[in-house]
């Protein structure tokens, strides 16, 4: 689905990504873990078109998308759920969802709203409420639901569990697994490395803008270096 080769990117004179290679295959959940400042969000920004790379190439479904603007990347089937949710707080739940489906036909939008409500029943109950009145967990569900309205082939999520209570973190991860069953491929950036690796088919470890390790989710959980750096040294 997605192939990244030799990507270099940054902000002004600051180079963040250094010859980065990464792949997402059809039917996969792939997670990207690393310390704060490693460049994880920058990877997602480059893929989505929010940041143009200085070097390298990105292909999606065998078509070059390097440097495409965000609206064209979205139409190709790549959607980003940003860190911090960024819902439209003064609009209702339903209005947020409809905004997420702006590239779709009206009949498609209606069916997508129904599908989102089936995935997140609480949003059906809250559909007339303003976004700012929702709990943190409900806002995260709304952010994911809004992204799904565009019918993405690849859904990218940036720290979906950030700021959530543990019981809500578990629910969000269960929903991410459900999305894979619904034929949505996922690239996940997540601070909770243990939970991310448990649901991931494969993972990449990013340090100072470079991939230093990759493998199956289970292999990375079992790796002593990863356990010590990101999992608190425990194997459970």
From TrEMBL:
<dbReference type="InterPro" id="IPR027417">
    <property type="entry name" value="P-loop_NTPase"/>
</dbReference>
<dbReference type="GO" id="GO:0005524">
    <property type="term" value="F:ATP binding"/>
</dbReference>
<keyword id="KW-0067">ATP-binding</keyword>
<dbReference type="GO" id="GO:0015658">
    <property type="term" value="F:branched-chain amino acid transmembrane transporter activity"/>
</dbReference>
<keyword id="KW-0547">Nucleotide-binding</keyword>
<dbReference type="GO" id="GO:0015807">
    <property type="term" value="P:L-amino acid transport"/>
</dbReference>
<dbReference type="InterPro" id="IPR017871">
    <property type="entry name" value="ABC_transporter-like_CS"/>
</dbReference>
<dbReference type="InterPro" id="IPR003439">
    <property type="entry name" value="ABC_transporter-like_ATP-bd"/>
</dbReference>
<dbReference type="InterPro" id="IPR052156">
    <property type="entry name" value="BCAA_Transport_ATP-bd_LivF"/>
</dbReference>
<dbReference type="Pfam" id="PF00005">
    <property type="entry name" value="ABC_tran"/>
</dbReference>
<keyword id="KW-0029">Amino-acid transport</keyword>
<feature type="domain" description="ABC transporter">
    <location>
        <begin position="2"/>
        <end position="233"/>
    </location>
</feature>
<dbReference type="InterPro" id="IPR003593">
    <property type="entry name" value="AAA+_ATPase"/>
</dbReference>
<keyword id="KW-0813">Transport</keyword>
<comment type="similarity">
    <text>Belongs to the ABC transporter superfamily.</text>
</comment>
<protein>
    <submittedName>
        <fullName>ABC transporter ATP-binding protein</fullName>
    </submittedName>
</protein>
<dbReference type="GO" id="GO:0016887">
    <property type="term" value="F:ATP hydrolysis activity"/>
</dbReference>
<dbReference type="InterPro" id="IPR030660">
    <property type="entry name" value="ABC_branched_ATPase_LivF/BraG"/>
</dbReference>
């Amino acid at each position: 689905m997605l192939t990244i080769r030799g990507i270099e990117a940054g902000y002004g004179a600051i180079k963040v990504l250094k010859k980065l290679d990464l792949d997402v295959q059809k039917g996969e959940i792939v997670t990207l873990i690393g310390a704060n400042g490693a460049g994880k969000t920058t990877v997602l920004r480059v893929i989505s078109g929010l940041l143009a790379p200085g070097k390298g190439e990105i292909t999606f479904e065998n078509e070059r998308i390097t440097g495409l603007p965000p609206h064209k990347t979205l139409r190709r089937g790549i959607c980003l759920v940003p860190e911090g949710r960024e819902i439209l707080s003064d609009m209702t739940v339903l209005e947020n969802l409809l905004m997420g489906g702006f590239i779709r036909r009206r009949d498609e939008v209606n069916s997508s709203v129904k599908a989102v409500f089936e995935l997140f029943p609480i949003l059906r109950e809250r559909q007339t409420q303003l976004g700012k009145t929702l709990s943190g967990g409900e806002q995260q569900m709304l952010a994911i639901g809004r992204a799904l309205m565009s019918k993405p082939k690849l859904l990218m999520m940036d720290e979906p569990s950030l700021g959530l209570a543990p019981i809500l973190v578990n629910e969000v991860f269960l929903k991410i697994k459900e999305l894979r069953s619904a034929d949505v491929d996922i690239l996940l950036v997540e601070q909770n490395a243990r939970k991310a690796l448990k649901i991931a088919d494969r993972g990449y470890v990013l340090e100072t803008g470079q991939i230093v390790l990759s493998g199956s989710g289970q292999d990375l959980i079992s790796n002593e270096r990863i356990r010590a750096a990101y999992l608190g040294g425990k194997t459970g």
